[in-house]
Structures are given as C-alpha cells and as structure tokens.
Amino acid sequence: SFELPSDSFKHLGWCDIEELGVRGNQLRCPRVREGPSEEELFFRKEEHTLKKRKQVTDTEKWEKRLQENWENCAELNLSFQDLGDLYQVENFKRILRRLIRVEKLWLVDNSLTDLSAIRLPRCRELNVNKNHFTSFKQLPKIPQIQHLSLAENNITTLSGISDFRHTPLESLILKRNPCEFQERYRQLVFSSLPNLKMLDGIPKLPEDCSPPDVRLFYRMCTIL
C-alpha cells in the first residue's frame, strides 16, 4: 500500500490551506468537523497527516475569523458530520452562535441532543432530521421559523410544541417520532399551532380542527 498525494490534507480544514481565499458563506456544505486528536493519530500511525502546529498570533486568529465569515451565511448545510460528538460539539456551537443571518440550515444526522442555548434569529427553514432530540424544548430559539423538519428523532410527547405558537411556522414534519402515535395527534398539533398549514406533508384537513363535540366521537371504539 502507498499514500496518495492528497493524504496529508485529509484532516485539514479549508481555512488552514495556505493562499486560499474561499470564505465560509461561499460554501454550501463546508466540512467543519474537527480532525482526530494527536493521540488518536499516533495510535493510527497517521502522525504525518497532522499539520505541524505553530504559535497562532492574534492577527492570524482574526484573519481566520474573517475567512470563516459565518455571520454572512444565508444558507448552510452541515449534515452528516457527527457534530454532536463530544469532540466536535464545542467548535460546532461556536459556529452556530455566529449564524446570525442564516435563513436555511440543515443539520441532518449529527447525533444532536440539545441546542436550547442557541439562537438563530433569522432562520426560516431548519432541518434536524435523524438526530437524538427528545423534546421541543431542546431545539434552538427560532422566532422566524416557517418550515421545521424533525423526522426520525425521539420526541415522545407534544409538550413544549406551543412555544412555536407565536412564530410564523407553516410546515412541520414529525414523522417517525414516538409522539406521532399519540391519540388525536393531528388535532392536538393543529390546536397548539393555529397558524400551521401542513403537518407531515399533509395539508390541514377539516377533521384536524374539529369542534369539541365531534372530537369526542373519535375516542369511541366502534366494533363492526
């Protein structure tokens, strides 16, 4: 076996490549996942892939911050990077706190459990499918949200869903969450979110906003 010429760059972030002028807001799907630790690389016998660390000056730190330019990102896809891992989460949350103008954000399949300390003031579309959220309370603050996708998480109850009552939320996807099997699931969601127009890809139906006396009928068991 032999090493490819690109082997020494496989754990290098784009900001660390010399003489590269690309900025974060120019990348739709940037890799932000941190590479393995020095100790892990040693045991893998891959020390040669680690860029030699040098003392970073304040000027270089500021240049890197300008190059990342997360503040001006409008659309960003950080999916499939396992960013909820303990080794990744500090850098990941640092980036999230800088996304003050992001409008569309995809964080699919990242083992995320709690982003409640994060605020995304302009986010209109958020996709956090295939993560480990168990409650609506663990989601970031998203006051301008219009489209929210939470498929394939572990949300067991609808507790906390009313926090989105005063947002412009129009479309919500909760497929393949335990709460989907709750009795009168659709009626409960639409009664909590009167502005909602679509749930799990299905538009709001007349029976989703049935009056109280009709709802009682759905609790009855009819044996044919």
UniProtKB/TrEMBL annotation:
Source taxon at top rank: Eukaryota
The UniProt record lists the keyword tRNA processing: no
Coiled coil: none
Entry keywords, A to Z: Leucine-rich repeat, Repeat
Keyword Cytoplasm part of the UniProt annotation: no
PANTHER family assigned: GENE 29133-RELATED, LEUCINE RICH REPEAT PROTEIN
Entry protein name: TILB protein
Organism: Hylia prasina
Lineage, top ranks: Eukaryota, Metazoa, Chordata, Craniata, Vertebrata
Name of the coding gene: Lrcc6
